[in-house]
Amino acid sequence: MTGPHARRKPIAALRPAAFGADPTGERLARMRRSPRFVAGQFRNPLPTRTLLPGSTGRLLLTQLSKVDRARRAPRGHVPVHHPIAADWAAEPASGLRLTWMGHSSVLAEIDGQRVLFDPVWGQRCSPFPFAGPRRLHPVPLPLAELPPVDVVVISHDHYDHLDMPTIRALARTDTVFVVPLGVGADLEHWGVPATRITELDWHESGKVAHLTLTATPARHFCGRGLRGGQHTLWASWVVAGPRHRVFHSGDTGYFAEFTDIGRQYGPFDATMIQIGAYSEFWPKNHTDYTPLPGGWPDIHMTPAQGVQTHLDLQGSRPSGVLLPIHWATFNLAPHPWAEPAEWTRDAAADAGVPVAFPVPGQSFEPAGKLPIGPWWRAVAHPISRPWRRSEAVDVRSPVSGNSDLGDER
């Protein structure tokens, strides 16, 4: 065969499997019917900057700085709890138990069901085994030792949240997958049967046993491989059982929608909220206590914004427990390794928000005794900019009216 179709096949054959697959057929048609799908791609409900003009140089200098590079990693071995079978044998006394596996991976045991959020067991968050950010601590336990999982929830398709080797391993179990629109194409490409995949738009819900799982808004973007456009959706998630409710933020910038999510689906017994991989900037000789917005101010949250998000979800009441996620496991941002935890600890104390700081692999019940010790201090470099408790912090991000996810990658 000759012609353009003959040339496409060899090129497609060279595409790494980790890049996933493009949505087609009814999956693509359903995406196009989404109110969020505009002019061929998904969009956030308000302008969202993925990279500030002029910030590339600053970020590059930080990446190349030997001093800054050292601070972005722990100086010692990160403590990890290794769960054993006996840890899972007894159901949580309260009916809700959370186990942080590192980064955004959390196993939630809720009202008799097990929900695994954003599982990443790979050694690198990358499409390649030889390049990309490596783990800064081991996985707490092999996937084969994980107790049976009822449902896997994915927030979006970035490599530090959707890991091909992990999905392929979980595809060999009986678990079902609940994901945002379009992400099912990747799962099928990696061996998950279509009958075990539920794809949802924002404010759509699915049922697994007696749990209701609802995709809720997030302010982020997607991107995997060489794809163009925002062709899969991103989401935060609400999981509600007969007795308990939890919220998982996925990746998101701060925006007012969290108040509406809390009003409609909350309050929550626990929230799992992204507080790491932000970017802030102190120019030379900058003496103000407040940093300037960093390279990507609209798609990730700072610790102060994460604490405010918890309050927004709880109707401005410091109830429920905040579990900080999206930190400690991978070096993905210019800030010091332990800064997200240190700043979240103080910001939560200022706001009166109960916060849990388990080591990776450690379980806790939000209704019980919380792990609150600053364990990271024993293995972290000193933090040069401590939290300024006396300063009022405006957690709201300024909105630029000249860019959107569809315009800037």
Give the tags:
409 residues, alpha/beta, 6-stranded mixed sheet, globular, disordered N terminus, disordered C terminus
Order of helices and strands: HHEEHHHEEEEHEHEEEEEHEEEHEHE
Tally of DSSP β-strands? 17
Unreliably modeled segments: 1-8, 390-409
Radius of gyration, taken over Cα atoms and rounded to an integer in Å: 21 Å
What's the end-to-end separation, in Å?
37 Å
What is the molecular shape? globular
SS element count, helices: 10
Which secondary-structure class do the elements indicate?
A: alpha/beta
- Strand order, largest beta sheet: 8-7-6-5-4-3-17
Helix content: 10-25%
Mean pLDDT: 87
In short:
With 409 residues, the protein is of the alpha/beta class.
Q: How is the secondary structure organized here?
A:
Elements (H helix, E strand, L loop, with lengths): L3 H10 L11 H8 L4 E2 L2 E2 L13 H9 L1 H6 L13 H5 L6 E7 L2 E6 L2 E5 L33 E3 L10 H8 L4 E5 L3 H6 L7 E4 L4 E4 L2 E6 L19 E5 L4 E4 L8 H9 L4 E5 L5 E2 L10 E2 L9 H11 L7 E5 L13 H13 L11 E2 L45
Parallel strand pairs: 5-6, 6-7, 7-8, 12-13, 13-16
Antiparallel strand pairs: 1-2, 3-4, 3-17, 4-5, 9-10, 10-11, 11-12, 14-15
Helix pairs in contact: 8-9, 9-10
